[in-house]
Amino acid sequence: MVKVLVYSFKIIFVLCFSLFTYTTLHSESQLLLLPELDYFQLEQDIFVSLNIDNIDDLYGISCDIVFDPTSASFDQIDEGNFLNINGNSTVMQYDTFSNNRIIFALSLIGQVPGVCCAGSSTVAVFKFNPLLYSISCISLENIILLDSNLEEIECISSNCLINIGGIPSIIDIPNIEIPLYEQHTIYLTEFVFDPNTSFEELSITTSFPQQLNVFTNETDLTIQSLNETGNFNITLTVSDNNFLVEKNICVLVNPITAIFDEDDVYTFDSIDIFPNPTRDNIEINSNNKSKLTYNIYNIKGQKLIFDKVGNSRSISLSKYPTGIYFIKFNNEKSTIKKIIKLH
After folding, report:
1. Residue 24 burial (10 A CB sphere; 0-12, 13-18, 19+)
2. Secondary structure (DSSP) of 60-127
3. Following DSSP, what letter does each residue of 244-278 receive, concatenated?
4. What stretch of H or E contains 194?
5. DSSP assigned state of 163
6. Mean pLDDT confidence for 278-306
7. Contact 67, 134 (CB under 8 A)
8. Contacts of 254 (CB under 8 A, 6+ apart)
9. Is it true that the peptide bond before 113 is cis, omega within 30 degrees of 0?
10. Measured on CA atoms in the order 194, 161, 170, 241, is the torsion positive or negative?
11. How confident is the model at residue 273 (pLDDT cuts 50, 70, 90)?
12. Which residues neighbour 180 within 8 Å (Cβ) at sequence distance 6 or greater?
């Protein structure tokens, strides 16, 4: 039984070692599709290079190039400078058996050594004609690479996207952390780009859950947490005359740290504040005839206002930004209430 197990482990080790060696030898060879530009205008020819990277011995190549025929039409292929770099004779063939697939083959001629390169070199260049504003994929399928012994070479491949018309793009916006009741501003000009129009001509809208409030203007997006901690998503939509692009913004709302002393007593006696929420002024009514003072704090615990209260008192918050505030009344006991200042 022990001998059988040892023998089995030896077989597994040999297989793993062989697989590792095979992968190590060939995994660095790459076949890449690379567009000439990041985006193309509708009246502009599209050139896509088929590049080979890090190969020791290439004699011939065949592959299918698959594209979206509603976005672009195939025009022609030009041979690159890789296989014929030393004056070697080559033969190139291609055909289009359907309107979305090009069958491509390129090979050396005769008993000559294969070509090697340590970096990247161009095998062929494909030309397409744009048909409409779009983003579409050009991909590689049925890839066969042969060395000078006509043995197949393993490689990894990379497809590419063709952006016709220059669709607006949104760079990934980092995750945002804000305390409960606080706000955070994003400067959209740092993250949104449109190659066709200026930033001011874009249409920018948002959708967000009820636990958040979001305000946008021409260049900024302000996020305010309202009444709940947790993870929330905002969908940012950017569009111009032709396209619409969406991106999610992740917002983590954390609990706020205490801004009052632990010995504060939270009692809600005969003190009323209205309207609350408010856009400007609040009124304070109290039946307490004794001297009553109050402090108003922002969410960071900074004292903004200190004053005395009579039976009725009006307080203006118009000069303070939208957000959450706390009013603390001081008498024999402390009473603390929350005020919501609206936009």
Report:
1. exposed
2. EEEEEEE--TTTEEEEEEEE-SSTTTTS--EEEEEEEEETTEEEEEEEE-SS-PPEEEEEEEEEEEEE
3. EEEEEEEEEEEPPPP-S-TT------SEEEESSSB
4. none
5. E
6. 80
7. no
8. 177, 178, 179, 180, 229
9. no
10. positive
11. confident
12. 225, 227, 228, 229, 253, 254, 255, 256
Preceding omega of 69 cis (within 30 degrees of 0) = no
Q: Residue 194 has which token pair?
A: 């449109």
H or E element, residue 22: helix 2-26
Strand partners, 111: none
Task: Please work out, in degrees rounded to the nearest 5, the angle formed at the alpha carbon of residue 331 by the alpha carbons of 326 and 335.
Answer: 30
**Closest by alpha carbon to 31, among 49, 58, 56, 52?**
52
- The DSSP bridge partners found for residue 156 are 30
Distance CA(104)–CA(115), nearest Å, equals 19
As a whole number of angstroms, the distance between CA 282 and CA 260 comes to 22
For the chain, the helix, strand and coil percentages under 3-state DSSP, each to the nearest 5: 10, 55, 35
74 phi, psi to nearest 5 deg: -75, 140
Q: H-type helices in 179-311, by residue range?
A: none
pLDDT of residue 269 exceeding 60, the answer is no
| Distance of alpha carbon 326 from alpha carbon 121, whole angstroms | 66
How far apart CA 267 and CA 331 sit, in angstroms, is 11
Q: Using the Cα atoms of residue 196, residue 202, residue 203 and residue 209 in order, give the sign of their dihedral.
A: positive
The residue to which tokens 């690159």 are assigned: 80
At 211, the amino acid letter reads: Q
Q: Quick one: which of 129, 138, 141 has its CA closest to 74?
A: 129
What DSSP designation does 172 have? P
The verdict on whether omega for the bond into residue 130 sits within 30 degrees of 0, i.e. cis, is no
pLDDT in tens, 67-116: 999 999 999 999 998 888 777 889 999 998 788 999 999 999 888 888 88
Neighbours of 90 (CB within 10 A): 14
